[in-house]
Amino acid sequence: MSTPAVAQGRSNYIVTFRAGTNPGGRARAVASAGASLRFNYSGVDAAAVAVPNENALAALAKDPSVIAVVPDRLVFAFQDVAANAKSSGKPGGGGSVQVVPAGVTRVGVPTSGSNGDGVGVAVIDTGIDLAHADLGAPVDAFSAFGGSCADDAGHGTHVAGVVAARDNAIDVIGVAPKARLFCVKVLDGSGSGSDATVMAGLDWVLVNHALVQPNIRVVNMSLGRPGSVDDNPAFHDLIKSLEGAGVAVVVAAGNDSSAESSQMIPAAYDEVITVASATASAGSNQCRWLGSSIAADTASFFTTDGANVVVSAPGEDAENVSRGCVISSTGILSTRLGGGTTRMSGTSMAAPHVSGVLARHYQANSSYTVSDVRQFLVIDAARKGIAPLDSPTSGYSFDGVREGVVQAP
Known about the structure:
Blueprint: E1 12-17, H1 23-32, E2 36-40, E3 46-50, H2 54-62, E4 66-71, E5 74-77, E6 87-88, H3 102-107, E7 120-125, E8 139-143, H4 155-164, E9 180-185, E10 192-194, H5 195-208, E11 216-221, E12 223-226, H6 233-244, E13 248-252, E14 264-265, E15 273-279, E16 309-316, E17 318-321, E18 327-330, E19 332-335, E20 341-344, H7 347-364, H8 370-380
Parallel strand pairs: 7-9, 7-11, 8-9, 11-13, 13-15, 15-16
Antiparallel strand pairs: 1-3, 1-4, 2-3, 5-10, 5-12, 6-20, 12-14, 17-18, 19-20
Helix pairs in contact: 4-7, 5-6
């Protein structure tokens, strides 16, 4: 097999082994080549390794048990940097009156019979604020960095609130407020990780999804990287295994409007539910040349789109146009690291709206398959064939498909 070069500053790789190579055999092959084992996955025949030099990499690639050696590529949280991030509430506490965010209103406010009760949702992200008063004590499930999975960036806490902020007297309410949150930390305090750390989180879910209570039926991944479907076979195999196990994996499409979702990993995988971003409400307009405000259900100016996007969802409250004809985003209101609330925009915020909707589908019938719930998203989408509307910054779609905006059952 061909051997990738050890690039300067990059010594981490993902190694795929022949089927049936047990974890002990993988560890021996890695050690024999002079490399170091970082993660030895249970749900796929692969390991993440640190390679010190070209000789060690070549030795590993020549091992008869090894099928492929690929770079461990960097992965990032999908949050739009232009988001309006005004905060409310006090650290450790929260707003004194509960708000129903515009995104939750758009997809369907939860009811006593449709609120995600009895469904586990794994948030694979920067972690979750485990002490946040509005998140109902998330399960400290797994950290790829060791120790607690507590959030040290804020991104995962915001995502978690969109899914399942509690129906109480403070802060906000999520799409599925009775769902149980499982904290799976794969990104660090800068919102960065790699294929290896994300795979470690997915591996934990694959091994444990049916062993925990309630069972994990939904995974939310508001993260990704540029790439292609065949650039890391082991990553793709984990996703396939989760789908086969009945776990729906929801993925943000990306925040690059010049790219297609087929160029983003894991959004490009057929087995995931890829979500693009749209506005939840109409915005304001002070630009005389635009003519009217940017309507609700308009494709966000930052969203990635593509043929494999299953549905759009609110990734921002609204887009506003200044007198100078510059578009800005008012972000989704959700939970903030340290307590209270904050606003963020991005396909990172769109994906958890869909994860919450799926939790409500699984609550309705626990025997639903991933194929079933995917079909429900497509059938139930609002304004299918009409929305998302064109963004005034560009044409909307690479594929010409207006897949509609997600609606809760």
